[in-house]
Amino acid sequence: MSVPDADMLISISEIFETPVSTLLGENIIETKADDLKVISEKLEIINLQLANRKMTKQKLLHWLFISLGIVIMIVFIILFISHSPYLNWDYSNPETSVMGVVLHAFEWLFIRVAPLLLIGAITGVYFTRKLSNQENN
Fold it and tell me: pTM value?
């Protein structure tokens, strides 16, 4: 019995649309159903991982928005209670005058920007909570 050339064997298998192992007389065990089951299980695991990652990211954003709102409120309360202490400082010392200008600039910018940030944080909390409630239903 002669052994066929590998290239000829491949071309014959393509012509007859059969695997090379069938031409050589080997038994082929069909495992397509098992393969599909394994693939579907892997896809299910990947899908669960992606869903968990999305949920974790959404929870993180939700708590970041809550934290931002709390920090803004705390800084606002501190500024309100302190009553701008730099107004009573002696500005003849250069270090004191620089520090007074820095504090005044921070207070001025914060009072103008904080309401917008607080509205954004509240909106972010609302939308991230709304999305997480919809996904749970």
Answer: 0.65
